[in-house]
Inverse folding.
């Protein structure tokens, strides 16, 4: 299981929050603080104590977090502090804005970066980022594509070419707006905003309302988000040349909105 | 095991906040189970018209369910035992 899968796995929240409870117990206190949550979630998504965020690999042992220690046997009964409760509420808003049906570890990590508990400063310093850089690191981790039903084409991919146009395989790599939003980790309305502003080229199948996005265009936009620079030329015309003739036509306006969203 | 309901008045509550509360109560229930207290969150119903939330739990005692809610940071107005009735039981 990749880090992206672990970060987007709602079932791993329970592992992280259970770790957070143990962190509080390990500190000998009955109050679960945001730093305990941060430690718990990082431990729950780490592999061999490493959280590889692409540009940065966090060694949790260097941060004083050990994944291989036995849980302390105490009679302490930790409860969530008001600050930790606020992190959950914030994470839930992040998840909702992301279009996620359930809370996942990545939503808690985003929320923790925004709240910035004391322990986050150590993590951010180790990663060499500020709060905005932390969000960019997490935003660059693309959610795994949902598994398609065994007897159908992959969700969101126009598997069958339109009659009378290009041959088989010409439409491989096309995504629906929903899938593209999921892949970017943004809300569908944010994704549609990218299309409207011209930052993300999109195709419309003539005679139909369906909009499709090329994987390459999505990857290009993601790359711009990673480095935080506006696209030099991401307008529809830039990608319009060389398209198969016929139904697909570019939609959206010319690029006008530089910068990083959110 | 007995079923209990926690009745909360939460004006202005959003579905987002309910999601966060659910994650907290799941983790605290798991923690109490590892301590040997078999307490579980069964389900919740949100009543938008009255801003009330009814959360159903299963546990060995009212005190255990009270503690679960306190650990999860979930305030409540009432916590009472529930007598269950279903179409099949009538």
């Amino acid at each position: 299981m990749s880090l992206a899968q672990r970060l987007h796995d709602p079932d791993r929240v329970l592992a992280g929050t259970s770790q957070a409870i143990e962190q509080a117990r390990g500190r000998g206190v009955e109050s679960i603080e945001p730093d305990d949550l941060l430690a718990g979630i990082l431990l729950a998504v780490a592999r061999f104590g490493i959280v590889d965020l692409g540009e940065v690999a966090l060694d949790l042992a260097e941060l004083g977090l050990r994944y291989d220690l036995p849980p302390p046997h105490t009679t302490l009964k930790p409860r969530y502090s008001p600050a930790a409760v606020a992190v959950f509420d914030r994470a839930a808003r992040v998840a909702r804005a992301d279009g996620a049906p359930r809370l996942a570890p990545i939503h808690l990590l985003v929320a923790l970066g925004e709240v910035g508990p004391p322990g986050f400063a150590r993590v951010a310093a180790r990663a060499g980022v500020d709060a905005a850089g932390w969000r960019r690191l997490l935003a660059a981790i693309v959610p795994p594509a949902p598994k398609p039903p065994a007897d159908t084409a992959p969700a969101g991919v126009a598997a069958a070419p339109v009659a009378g146009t290009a041959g088989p395989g010409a439409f491989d790599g096309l995504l629906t707006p929903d899938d593209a939003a999921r892949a970017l980790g943004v809300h569908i309305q944010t994704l549609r905003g990218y299309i409207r502003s011209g930052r993300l080229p999109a195709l419309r199948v003539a005679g139909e309302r369906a909009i499709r996005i090329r994987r390459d265009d999505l990857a290009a936009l993601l790359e711009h988000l990673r480095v935080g620079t506006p696209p030099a030329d991401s307008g529809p015309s830039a990608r319009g040349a060389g398209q198969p003739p016929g139904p697909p036509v570019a939609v959206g306006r010319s690029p006008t909105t530089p910068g990083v969203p959110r | 095991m007995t079923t209990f309901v926690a009745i909360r008045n939460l004006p202005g509550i959003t579905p987002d906040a309910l999601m966060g509360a659910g994650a907290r109560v799941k983790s605290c229930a798991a923690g109490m189970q590892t301590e040997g207290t078999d307490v579980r969150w069964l389900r919740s119903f949100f009543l938008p018209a009255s801003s009330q939330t009814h959360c159903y739990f299963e546990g060995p005692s009212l005190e255990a369910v009270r503690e679960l809610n306190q650990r999860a940071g979930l305030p409540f107005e009432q916590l009472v035992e529930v007598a269950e009735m279903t179409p099949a039981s009538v």
The helical segments of chain B are 15-34, 62-71.
